[in-house]
Structure formats: structure tokens, C-alpha cells
Write a structure and sequence with these properties.
The complex is a heterodimer. Chain A is α/β, with parallel strands linked by helices. Helix content of chain A is 60%, strand content 8%. Chain A has 21 helices and 7 strands. Chain A has a 5-stranded parallel beta sheet with strand order 2-3-4-1-5, with helices on both faces. A two-stranded parallel ribbon of chain A has the order 6-7. In chain A, β3, α5 and β4 form a beta-alpha-beta unit. In chain A, α7 runs parallel beside α9, α13 crosses α16 and α15 packs antiparallel against α16. The radius of gyration of chain A is 29 Å and the shape is extended. The two termini of chain A are 47 Å apart. Chain B is an alpha/beta fold. Classes of the chains: A alpha/beta, B alpha/beta. The interface between A and B is large, with 54 and 57 residues.
Chain lengths: 407, 319
């Protein structure tokens, strides 16, 4: 029960590893080169942000190819002796039963200070002469400390996972755990992880373990967890930016979700910008930002993200003269709340619409628009007709109550 | 629902659209029906005509030979294609050798979906005939139009609408004042479904139906006060106008494209200089297009409201 989901759902084969196909291909090709003779570069250096799957790929690879994995992490790198003890022999001799061996130096970033430099030097020596393939991982391969080591390694970059990839993985876990999760909820969790699958899965476990359902309302506080102060600062930096670069930088500096930020700016624009012409210009910029967001959605071309950011930040900043009429506090985006509140209501309208449509030969949308408004008045004013119609349309009790409720 | 209770069951019961009805009757007589497009504004009897044709053709058991599909409800052309396939594959066993498929709101189908529909229509010509129902035949692609017999439905002339209301009133034992009748006809403008719905609702509210009951019913039924929203924006209150917009979208479940349609027709009635009307039409058109591309309804429409606020301010300054 207390197993970490990141362990429980760890991929067992290379195929199951999400994303970074290019990196996986490169690694596989390099390992197969060893079948003939050691390649020119005897070590691979995998680098990339946390949670992009570096270690997991190596583990899955060893399993796929039936290799013995000799694994080490930061604590083993303290001294030259420790490294030598861990990997020196392993790199020189094959295993007893001819099983091939794969050596992993994980989390090289863990090496700190001068004391550890000895360890790094030994690793470099081992890499030069190893008889077994070696793989190293770190967040940043271009750290000056690694400059010598880097020369003897082939570099492989691990990119941040896309939101869609993370979302798909979360969905899989939820279905295996028997959690019914709303798409928007998973989307928010995935988005907040900004490319780090491990943290997304950890977040999900914290939110969903032991539950049957996970609604957007259960997770939406995640987005406000980016402390209100932080959001207020970003908003101030954007609305009152002195130039376009400052406005853009405001987003880079703060770790906020872009869709959420758009909501904040959209909510607050009319409260900050009072001049009609300026407000109109600013709203046009937000509409353009939204347009690019839509294009990203339909083309899945994330490169377009920069334009989305341009319009919502720099676009808004240059739309107005920054002459606010006194201090106006920023307001929480009410649209988000209204949307989750009204979702059930819209589902109800659609369900009633479908029932009407079946009887009155029209689509559910059309029925919702043309018939429900009248039906509502009839239900509220005439008990006899109400009962007759409810039966004829085959409406359930909830539907009848919904139509009868005064609004 | 009175719309269904009083819906004609046979072509002979239809009082209006004489020319169309006569042509349809000749199809029944010949026991042969081509593929058809019924086009025209809402509430003019398109669906009724299609159903009556089917009932006259097949008799009481007509449901077995007729399938009604709604393009707006069926998710994607694949569903339509599969349903049509299973329905049209089997030959009709009665004396009429084909079945009839009524596809309502066909003008809501995308171009691609219509292309696929066209192929389906061709494949099953032996066993099925299609009646496509649409508000605008122009939204139906050329190749389908050329394969169908076109029928243009028009708004009911006034005297027919009057007779219609009087007939229902007599049957239901209602008292309708002259001004009440006027109001109903004025508001529904030849749309019989709307006429009937207003009549039934007014009847459920109070005994004598007069101008006041009719207008109060219609007012309550139309929370989507597009005109009010536009005027609020013109008067400079963007935040309030945006709230009205949000209510329409979220509370009343209206689609952005419906709202934009209403905004368009209202705009030309607004008390703003013509120069601005044209400028606004340009913005409206752009928003309309963006909505079709899947942009966010509220943000796009809000940008339009902000334009109106700008227009309002400029007009005021000019005076």
C-alpha cells in the first residue's frame, strides 16, 4: 500500500518508457556497437532536467538486453578509492557466466567540492579504458567540472516531457488504480509538473491515492499554490513593464502555469486599464494570445508557445499608458470558479435536451436552446402540465427538479 | 408538447407550402422518392413534411423504414456512416423498395463529413433515399446539391399562422385576446414551432392570453439578452457586459457561434454611426472565424465587447 507510485509504475521495458524516442534510439545503437568491439567513445553521458527518464531508461535497457547492471550514485563518488572499488574491477572483467555488464554512474551532479574531484578523475580514467559499456547521468553535462570527462563521452540529451505525454501516463496510472479522474484535473497536475514526470506522479499519488474520484476542484488549489504573492508580482511586472523585454521576462522569472496566468491577466485587464481605447487594444492582444494557444492545441506545435507568451505579456504591456486611476488590487480569476460550478448544470441541460430531441425531432443543442426555456416556465407555473410533460419526455426526478427550480 | 400533438400526420393535413406538398404527394403516388434537400428557416415544416411523406408512403408501420438522424447530435461522420450502413444495407421488404433516411441539421456538418456522406449516398442508392434538412442550402456542398431535388420552404403567410393558433385554441379551450394573438405572431415571425411553444407556455401561466402574458413569457424565456449586453458595453461598462456574456455561455449553455450570430444581427440595429457598424462587422467576422478554429469563446467575444466600449466612448466624444 505504501509503495511509491513512481516505483510501482516504473517502466519494465524500453518501450514502456515515455517520450525521448530519439535519445532511446541513440542509446540502443551505441550499446549494440559494443557487440563487435568497444566503440570510440566508451561512455554515454545522458543529461537533462530531473524526471525526464534518464535512470529509468538505463535500467529498462539492461533488463531488455539481459545485461547485469552495476549501479552507483552520488555517495560512491566521494573518493578515488570508493570509485575504484565500485567500478574499477567491474569495468575490466566480464561476469562469471558471460552475461554482459552495464555500468551506471548516476547523478554525477552530486559531486561537489574539491574533495570529490579525485573521484571524477578516476571515473574519467575508467571510462577511457573500460571493457564494459558505461553510462553517466547528470542534469547539466556542460558544467565546467565535467569538461575533461565530457571529451571521452558521447552526449545524449533528454528533453522535458510534453504535457500530453505526462497526462497520458497519469491517465494510465489512474485507471490501474481505479481512480476516476476528470481530464482537466490530470491536465492541471501534468501542466504543473512542467516536463518532470516523476514529480507529476508523486503529486498524483498525494492527491488521488485511496480515492475513487479525482475532480478538477480537488486539484485546482495546486495552481494557486504558486503563492498568490508570486502571481501578484508577475501581474504587476507585466501590466507595468517598462519595455517588452521586461514583460516577457516576468514570465520566465516566475514559475507559473501559462494558461492560469492568461486567466489572471484576462480577469484583471479591465480593472487596471480604464481607458476604452487602451482596454480594447489590450483585449485584442489577449485574444491573439488565445488564438495561438488554440493553434498550439490543434497542431501540437509547442514552438508556437513563444507567441502565446508574447501577446499576453508584451502585448498587454504596450497596449496602455500605465496610468492607473489610483491603486487597484489584483483580483482572483472568477471565470475558473464559474466554469467548474456550471459544468454540472451544462451536463444537465444536455441530458434534458437529448430527451426532448428524441420526442420533438430535433438535436439536443437545439432543444436546449428553443424548448427548455419554455418548458422551464411551464414547469414553474402549471403542475398538471408539468406532470404530463415530465412523463411524456421521460424525465427523471433530478431533471424535473432542475426545470422547476426558480432562477 | 403541443408542437408534437398538433404536428400533421399526413401530407393532406399540411395546410401550407402547397407547391411542395403537391410534389411530395406525386412521389407517394409514384412510390418513388429521389434524394431531397429541404431547406428553409426554422419552424416552416421541413421535418414535418419529411415525416408525413414517410407516413403516407409506408403507412402505419413507417417507423421500420425510416431513420431520423441529427447531424448535430451524432458524433462525427463515422457514426453517421456506420448507422447509415447498417440501416441501408438491408432491403426494405414492403412494396416500396427503399428506406428513407432523414438527416436533420445537415448544414451543421463539416465539408469533410459531407464529402463522406456523399459517397455513402451513392453507395446505397438502391436501398435508401436521403432527405437532408437544412436552414441554408448554401452550406450543403455542391456535389450533394446536384444529386438532390431541392425544396425551398418559406415562412408561413400570416393568415395560415392565425388559423393555426385559432385551431389549437379551440381544441384546448383557450381564450386569446386579439392583442395576445398579435403579440404571438409578431414575436414568432412565421416560425410555427415558436408560435406553438409560446402559445402553450402562455396558456400554462394564466387564463386569458393577452399581450402582457405573451411578452412576460417571452421575456422570461430569453435570458440571452444579447441586445442588453451590447448596450451595456456601448455605455462603457465592460465588466458588467462581460458578466452577461459569461452567464449566457455558462449558465444558459449557449454556443459562442449562436451568440455571435445574434450579435451580428443586433449590431446593425444599434444606434451607432454606420462607419462603426462596418468596423464592428469586421471584428465580428474575425471572431466568428476564430471560434470555428477552436479559440476560447469568452476571451474572443470579450475582445469584441471591448471594441464596443471603445466605439461607445468615441461616439460620445464626437457628440
Amino acid at each position: 500500500m505504501n509503495v511509491l507510485w513512481t516505483m510501482k509504475y516504473k517502466p519494465q521495458t524500453l518501450d514502456e518508457v515515455v517520450g525521448n524516442q530519439e535519445a532511446k534510439d541513440k542509446i540502443l545503437k551505441w550499446v549494440h556497437e559494443w557487440d563487435k568491439k568497444p566503440p570510440k567513445k566508451r561512455a554515454l553521458f545522458l543529461y537533462g532536467s530531473p524526471g525526464t527518464g534518464k535512470t529509468i531508461v538505463v535500467e529498462a535497457l539492461a533488463k531488455d538486453l539481459g545485461m547485469e547492471l552495476v549501479q552507483s550514485n552520488a555517495s560512491n563518488y566521494r573518493t578515488a578509492e570508493a570509485v575504484q572499488k565500485f567500478a574499477g574491477t567491474a569495468s575490466q572483467y566480464t561476469t562469471l557466466f558471460g552475461k554482459k555488464r552495464l555500468i551506471l554512474f548516476d547523478e554525477l551532479d552530486g559531486i561537489t567540492g574539491t574533495a570529490d574531484r579525485g573521484g571524477l578523475r578516476v571515473i574519467t580514467d575508467i571510462v577511457k579504458a573500460t571493457a564494459s559499456p558505461i553510462i553517466l547521468t547528470a542534469n547539466n553535462a556542460y558544467d565546467p567540472r565535467f569538461s575533461t570527462l565530457r571529451e571521452h563521452c558521447q552526449l545524449v540529451e533528454f528533453r522535458k516531457l510534453t504535457r500530453t505525454d505526462i497526462e497520458a501516463q497519469l491517465r494510465k496510472i489512474c485507471s490501474r488504480e481505479g481512480v476516476k479522474a476528470e481530464a482537466e484535473a490530470l491536465r492541471l497536475v501534468a501542466e504543473r509538473a512542467s516536463g518532470d514526470l516523476r514529480s507529476a506522479v508523486n503529486d498524483l499519488q498525494a492527491l488521488a491515492q485511496g480515492r475513487k474520484q479525482l475532480a478538477y476542484d480537488d486539484v485546482k488549489w495546486l495552481s494557486t499554490r504558486d503563492r498568490k504573492d508570486a502571481i501578484f508580482k508577475v501581474l504587476g511586472d507585466i501590466f507595468y513593464a517598462r519595455n517588452v523585454l521586461d514583460a516577457r521576462r516576468a514570465v520566465d522569472a516566475a514559475d507559473v502555469d501559462l494558461d492560469m496566468l492568461l486567466e489572471w491577466i484576462y480577469e484583471n485587464a479591465p480593472h487596471q486599464i480604464k481607458d476604452p481605447k487602451e482596454l480594447s487594444a489590450a483585449m485584442e492582444m489577449l485574444a491573439s494570445a488565445d488564438l495561438y494557444r488554440g493553434r498550439i492545441g490543434s497542431t501540437q506545435n509547442w514552438e508556437l508557445m513563444r507567441y502565446y507568451v508574447d501577446f499576453m505579456t508584451a502585448g498587454v504591456a504596450v497596449s496602455w499608458s500605465h496610468k492607473a486611476s489610483g491603486w487597484v488590487p489584483f483580483k482572483f480569476p472568477t471565470r475558473i470558479m464559474s466554469m467548474s460550478q456550471s459544468r454540472a448544470q451544462r451536463a444537465m441541460l444536455a441530458a434534458i435536451g437529448l430527451k426532448i430531441g428524441r420526442r420533438c425531432h430535433m438535436s439536443a443543442t437545439r432543444a436546449a436552446k428553443e424548448v427548455i426555456p419554455y418548458l422551464r416556465i411551464i414547469f414553474q407555473s402549471n403542475e398538471e402540465q408539468k406532470n404530463g410533460l415530465a412523463k411524456w419526455f421521460d424525465l427523471d426526478e433530478d431533471m424535473v427538479n432542475y426545470l422547476t427550480a426558480q432562477k | 408538447m403541443w408542437t408534437e400533438k398538433y404536428r400533421p400526420r399526413s401530407l393532406s393535413d399540411i395546410v401550407d407550402q402547397e407547391e411542395i406538398v403537391n410534389r411530395l404527394k406525386s412521389f407517394v403516388k409514384a412510390q418513388n422518392v429521389p434524394n431531397c434537400i429541404f431547406a428553409g428557416p426554422p419552424g416552416t415544416g421541413k421535418t414535418t413534411a419529411a415525416l408525413c411523406l414517410a407516413q403516407d408512403l409506408y403507412g402505419p408501420g413507417y417507423r421500420e423504414y425510416v431513420m431520423e438522424l441529427n447531424a448535430s447530435d451524432e458524433r462525427g461522420i463515422n457514426v453517421v456512416r456506420e448507422t447509415v450502413k447498417t440501416f441501408a444495407r438491408t432491403r426494405s421488404i414492403g412494396k416500396v423498395s427503399f428506406k428513407i433516411l432523414i438527416l436533420d441539421e445537415a448544414d451543421n456538418m463539416t465539408g469533410d463529413a459531407q464529402q463522406a456522406l456523399r459517397r455513402t449516398m451513392e453507395r446505397y442508392t438502391e436501398t435508401a433515399r436521403f432527405i437532408l434538412i437544412a436552414n441554408y442550402s448554401g452550406k450543403i456542398i455542391e456535389p450533394i446539391q446536384s444529386r438532390c431535388a431541392p425544396f425551398r420552404f418559406t415562412y408561413l403567410p400570416r393568415e395560415h399562422a392565425v388559423n393555426w393558433v385559432k385551431r389549437i385554441a379551440e381544441n384546448e379551450g383557450l381564450t386569446i385576446k386579439e392583442d395576445g394573438l398579435e403579440a404571438i405572431l409578431e414575436i414568432s415571425g412565421g416560425d410555427l414551432r415558436r408560435t406553438t411553444n409560446i402559445l402553450q407556455t402562455a396558456a400554462s401561466v394564466g387564463k386569458p392570453i393577452n399581450e402582457e402574458t405573451v411578452y412576460s413569457v417571452v421575456g422570461r424565456a430569453n435570458p440571452a439578452d444579447v441586445q442588453g449586453m451590447l448596450l451595456t458595453a456601448l455605455n462603457g461598462d465592460f465588466v458588467e457586459a462581460r458578466k452577461k456574456l459569461r452567464d449566457m455561455l455558462l449558465k444558459y449553455g449557449l454556443a459562442g457561434t449562436d451568440i455571435i450570430g445574434q450579435i451580428h444581427s443586433e449590431t446593425f440595429r444599434l444606434n451607432v454611426p454606420d462607419k462603426w457598424k462596418v468596423k464592428l462587422a469586421d471584428v465580428i467576422g474575425e471572431v466568428d472565424f476564430r471560434l470555428l478554429q477552436g479559440s476560447n469563446e469568452e476571451i474572443q467575444l470579450s475582445a469584441l465587447l471591448a471594441k464596443l466600449v471603445e466605439a461607445g466612448a468615441e461616439i460620445k466624444r464626437g457628440q
